Amino acid sequence: MTEKKETILQTALELFAKEGFNATSTSKVAKEAGVSEGLVFKHFNNKAGLLEAILKEGEKKFKLFYADVVMENDPRERLRKIILLPFQIAEEEYEFWKLQFKLKWELGYDSTEKMKPLVESITKAFDELSYPAPSLEAELLLQTLDGLSTAIIKHEVSDPENLMKLLLKKYEL
Length: 173
Description:
Number of strands: 0
Largest sheet: none
Number of helices: 9
Low-confidence stretches: none
Number of domains: 1
CATH class: Mainly Alpha
Shape: elongated
CATH architecture: Orthogonal Bundle
Mean pLDDT: 90
């Protein structure tokens, strides 16, 4: 990928995450990236193509992010790893994750299919550990982690270390 194309993608990611997809024009992306709007169109065809390129790159990151959890054989370790994920998000990745959360609301972006292997893996872990309602327990944990991830990214968590310890203790990990 060329440096200018990477700059356009990074700029669009930041603007979409900060201002929203609908509120961000391709001309603003081009101006902030220091390129012509024509170059944006040359590389991505339109604003939707730009978003699609960001999401494709993001999907690669997302799969790497949770691959270790899904591939884990020990159910207790699998749960421990999923609980640790929100606390391991690098600050330089916050814009990408902000965009993911924003898209859920702004565009009705559905990540259900993308999350399916993770959900199945966590459900299986609860089943292997003989929880009475494994799918509900998995949903509860994943929803908790989703909200916690949002709060971490927005810098709204006052004591992440102790929250992490509390969750690990709750599941006796």
